[in-house]
Amino acid sequence: MSNSNSLKVLFAGTADFSASFLEPILNSHHQVIGVVTQPDKVSGRGKKVQMTKVKELAVARDIPVYQFTSSLRHPENYQELLKLDFDIMVVVAFGDILPIELIDFPRYKSINVHPSLLPFGRGASPVQNTIANGDTSTAFCIIKMDATLDTGDILYREEVAVDAKETSETLFAKLSQMGGPILIKVLDNIQHYLDNAKPQDPLNVPEPKKTYTRKIKKESGRFDPNQEAITQERKLRAYTPWPGLFFAHPEQENQDIKIVQAQAVTNLDEVKANSKYEELASAQVGTISLQTDKAIYVRCANDSYLEITQVQLPGKKPTDIKSLRNGYPNLLALGKQIN
């Protein structure tokens, strides 16, 4: 297909990541004939209705928006979309499994942007999973969709390095920046990419070796000192801004304190050599075992330590440990248990 041929695109996406792929299509010679996104949410203290960024982009361009309160797998929902005239459907982090009747309907079928080393990291949270696992690489993939979750043939795959202190936000940004132009290139030459698509399993990876990431829940961000400190640091980098890394408030029932800034420390000798400190002679896992003017150190598994420098109390703005100590001197004091 030459670049002069414009495709009529139905776009399905919900996450902010999705919007970064809708925008380049809108700015290309291809025509977005409709956008499918999850229903608006009520959020914040003012209970304001919040549109997805995908919907905001569509509304700004007067593009029809389709939102369904139940799954798209229900015939009454997807049949409404089958009435539309489109050549291809592009799906990016939509948040629901689509019916094969819709996937196979358009002339060039449906394609999906998926950021993982497929067949590893299928499912709902591949980017967060990459950070939480401490992986050193991931991939930007565009696949032809089929009846099962993230199993389709690969149209495009490019490996991406993951930095040592990468966060989900920085990795999403990296993938978005590189992925937009790639998506347009694939759409411009869609028949070529479909003809040359490759199965995900050229080496016949056994089913147990494939990984499926789950939808992130609030409890995914619960601090667990029975794991190593590096695991907790990775959780913080993976799950910020939501659900973050948090622990139970020592003085307020059913409330949590968020850890905003923290890093793993494997050896406290360097900390002691460069700071005034107070230390607990022997501390159980989960205990604040050392403190300096700027940080507290919680003992974790295998004699590792999480250095916490900034936290957020319920209903408050983030605060550094020094300021917290001035206002709440006993809240996170030496010897306190954190879990």
From TrEMBL:
Keywords of the record: Protein biosynthesis, Transferase
Catalytic activity: L-methionyl-tRNA(fMet) + (6R)-10-formyltetrahydrofolate = N-formyl-L-methionyl-tRNA(fMet) + (6S)-5,6,7,8-tetrahydrofolate + H(+)
EC annotation from Swiss-Prot or TrEMBL: 2.1.2.9
Domain Formyl transferase N-terminal: from-to ranges: 9-187
Gene Ontology MF terms in the entry: methionyl-tRNA formyltransferase activity
Binding locations of (6S)-5,6,7,8-tetrahydrofolate: S116, L117, L118, P119
Domain Formyl transferase C-terminal: 215-328
Pfam families listed in its UniProt record: Formyl_trans_C, Formyl_trans_N
Keyword Protein biosynthesis: yes
UniProt-listed SUPFAM superfamilies: FMT C-terminal domain-like (SSF50486), Formyltransferase (SSF53328)
InterPro entries linked to this entry: Fmt, Formyl_trans_C, Formyl_trans_C_sf, Formyl_transf_N, Formyl_transf_N_sf, Formyl_transferase-like_C_sf, Met-tRNA-FMT_C, Met-tRNA-FMT_N
Domain of life: Bacteria
Biological function: Attaches a formyl group to the free amino group of methionyl-tRNA(fMet). The formyl group appears to play a dual role in the initiator identity of N-formylmethionyl-tRNA by promoting its recognition by IF2 and preventing the misappropriation of this tRNA by the elongation apparatus.
Membership in a protein family: Belongs to the Fmt family.
UniProt xrefs under NCBIfam families: fmt
Protein's recorded name: Methionyl-tRNA formyltransferase
Native species: Psittacicella melopsittaci
